[in-house]
Amino acid sequence: MTRPHLLEGQTLPAAPLQRRSQDNRARLKAAALVAFGEKGYEKTSIDEIARRASLATGTVYQHYRSKRQLLLALMDDLLEQLSQLDLKPADVGDPRSVLHDLLTRAFARDLRYLGAYRAWQEAVLADADLNEKQQAIHVWTTARVLAVLQYLQRLPGARVDVDLHSLATVLDRLFWSLLGQASRMPEAELQRSIASVTHLMHHAMFRDPRHEGGATKGK
């Protein structure tokens, strides 16, 4: 399933060809990520983004026609990063390690775009078109979570009676919620949260041998 392309249908200024223009676009994106992360969508202005990038306000409009279009570009970058995340486990041994490695790699990519996601959450509430795009994003990311769960269910010790579609939906919402909170978390707290989500997924997908052993002895 291909990712949603948020800039589809947008009339963008021509892509920069010169090195200086390419650098300016990168500076604008970096400045917008910081500003959106600190102030949110509504309280961030084009003027402020330009100032943080040390560029003239007119330079912004050479690359993006509006603040909304710039936000779409940043979120599109985030989805591209997610699409490049290899869902195939690096280690097919311990399922808990597989899950923890996957979540750690996911957040290592996503944390660079926390500012964009904070602004996106705010903008979606007042923009029906963005809300529609948000639903498409959830359909795509839920499908990717489902693919991981389907792989895990083929491993030894996996529960066979799990409603994978429902679990994938819940975990997808949890993933995005954690991403939205991560900007306000110290690194240690984020790692504890990743460990907690790992434990939740493992418990939902796999039987506990110790519990089953105790039940057998009780019989």
What does the model show?
This protein is mainly α and 219 residues long. It is built from 10 helices and no strands. It has helices at residues 19-39, 46-52, 57-61, 67-83, 95-110, 114-124, 128-152, 164-181, 187-205, 209-218. Helix 5 crosses helix 9 and helix 8 (164-181) packs antiparallel against helix 9. The chain is elongated, with a radius of gyration of 21 Å. The N and C termini lie far apart (47 Å). The model is unreliable at 211-219 (pLDDT under 50).
How are the SSEs ordered, and which strands pair?
Layout lengths: L18 H21 L6 H7 L4 H5 L5 H17 L11 H16 L3 H11 L3 H25 L11 H18 L5 H19 L3 H10 L1
Whole-angstrom Rg? 21 Å
Q: What is the number of E strands?
A: 0
The end-to-end span amounts to 47 Å
Number of helices: 10
Q: Brief overview, please?
A:
This protein has ten helices and no strands. The protein has helices at residues 19-39, 46-52, 57-61, 67-83, 95-110, 114-124, 128-152, 164-181, 187-205, 209-218.
Features:
219 residues; 10 helices; 68% helix; elongated
